Amino acid sequence: MVLGKVIGSIVSTVKHGCYANTKLLLVKQVSPKKKPQKGVLAAVDLVGAGKGDIVLVASEGRAAEELMHFSCRMPVRSMIVGIVDSIDGVEV
């Protein structure tokens, strides 16, 4: 799992068929203190996250594929599985 902050969305008119009706977001990795870290991820949003939200990202392709229960083998590596309210008692 990776902690990140949603920094934008990805719009694509042509994409793999398994991505139909999915929202793709750009997520900047952050530390538990919300300090930016190296790395930006493109992630499928399963929870309705938006720009500025601190989120949990499952970053293992197999875990993402199993959670989404796709009928086809989907080329996915990262997906947003939660929106964070607080970390160690610190409000986000």
Helix and strand topology:
Elements: E1 2-10, E2 23-30, E3 36-45, E4 54-58, H1 61-68, E5 79-83, E6 86-87, E7 90-91
Parallel strand pairs: 3-5
Antiparallel strand pairs: 1-2, 1-4, 2-3, 4-5, 6-7
What do you see in this structure?
The chain is mainly beta and 92 residues long. The protein has a single domain (2-91), classed as OB fold (Dihydrolipoamide Acetyltransferase, E2P), CATH 2.40.50. Helices cover 9% and strands 45% of the residues. The chain is built from one helix and seven strands. The strands form two sheets. The chain has a five-stranded mixed β-barrel with strand order 1-2-3-5-4. Strands 6-7 form a two-stranded antiparallel sheet. The longest helix has 8 residues, at 61-68.
Which structural traits does this protein have?
OB fold (Dihydrolipoamide Acetyltransferase, E2P); two-stranded antiparallel sheet; 1 helix; 45% strand; 92 residues; mainly beta
Report the principal-axis shape: globular
Total helix count? 1
CATH class: Mainly Beta
**What is the CATH architecture assignment?**
Beta Barrel
| Uncertain stretches | none
And the CATH topology? OB fold (Dihydrolipoamide Acetyltransferase, E2P)
> Nearest-angstrom radius of gyration?
13 Å
Percent of sequence in beta strands: 35-45%
Structural class by SSE content: mainly beta
> Got a strand count?
7
> Considering the protein shown, what is the CATH homologous superfamily?
EutN/Ccml
How many separate domains make up the residues? 1
Percentage of residues in helical conformation: under 10%
Along the chain, the helix and strand elements come as EEEEHEEE
Overall average pLDDT: 84
Distance between the termini: 18 Å
Biggest beta-sheet profile: 5 strands, mixed, barrel
